[in-house]
Structure formats: structure tokens, C-alpha cells
Write a structure and sequence with these properties.
By secondary structure, this protein is α/β, with parallel strands linked by helices. The protein is 17% helix and 34% strand. The chain has 4 helices and 10 strands; from the N terminus they run βββαβαβαβββαββ. Helix 2 (43-46) links the parallel strand 4 and strand 5.
Length: 135
């Protein structure tokens, strides 16, 4: 499974059960990368994917339901309980620190290896770093 997520510079993901931020360039990059394959996510996350080419699989527990090779867009932890099912993690890192009360619960430096990193010029953020990790 490939996990897609967004976090700030300190791995913050959410604050008061809401996403920290969103960016249409990130969504476009995700949709280009999955190339028409379904993306598993919650109904909360699905509301931001208004693009007509988006193929969404909405579930209250997408990490449990998604099969091998699936893409899952996650905006809230926990993710760690599914570590053994994750082959790849794609992290879009905001170029700032937001208030957070939920953080990425994976240890990237020990559970994964960084295979690529490059910057995107976002719509709401001047710089968004896309980091690709593999197990």
C-alpha cells in the first residue's frame, strides 16, 4: 500500500480534528501520480477532491479496507498500526509549522528510507516538499 499524506515541518498533521492546510497543486500531483487508480480516504478527505478525474474509494477506515498496491490519502493518525502493510509513503511537507495536536506516528528514519525529495511550487504555499519513502 502507498500512503499519501501532508504534514508540517514538525510532522504535525491536524489540529482540533481538522487538516492543517490543503493545496490544489498537491491534489493535482496526487491525481497525476495515481493515473486513474482509486484513492482510498475518509469522507472528510474526499470533500477536497472536487476534480472530475478523481476516483475515490470512501471509507471510515480506509487503511483497513485498502488492499495490496492501493493508494491511501490519510489526513489523521493513527497510521502506525498499519506499518507492515505500507510499502511506500509519500509525504507532502508544508514549508511552515502549524498548530497541531496530531502528528505523524511513524518513525521515518528507522521504518523507511528516503528515495527522493523535490520541491513543488504550490498554490497556497510557495514551497511544498514532496518526499518519497520506501520500506
Amino acid at each position: 500500500m502507498t500512503i499519501l499524506l501532508c504534514a508540517d515541518k514538525k510532522n504535525g498533521m491536524a489540529f482540533h480534528q481538522r487538516r492543517q492546510s490543503m493545496d490544489r497543486v498537491v491534489r493535482a500531483d496526487i491525481l497525476s501520480m495515481v493515473d486513474g487508480k482509486p484513492i482510498w480516504m475518509t469522507s472528510y478527505s474526499a470533500r477536497q477532491f472536487i476534480e472530475p478525474e478523481a476516483v475515490l474509494q470512501v471509507s471510515p477506515d480506509p487503511l483497513s479496507e485498502a488492499g495490496k498496491g492501493a493508494f491511501c490519502f490519510m489526513e489523521f493518525p493513527p497510521i502506525a498500526p498499519y506499518l507492515m502493510r505500507i510499502q511506500e509513503l509519500i509525504l507532502y511537507r508544508w514549508d511552515r509549522i502549524y498548530p497541531a495536536d496530531q502528528w505523524l506516528d511513524l518513525e521515518l528514519s528507522t521504518d523507511f528510507r528516503l528515495v527522493s525529495s523535490f520541491d513543488l511550487s504550490g498554490h497556497s504555499h510557495k514551497k511544498i516538499t514532496k518526499e518519497v519513502y520506501q520500506r
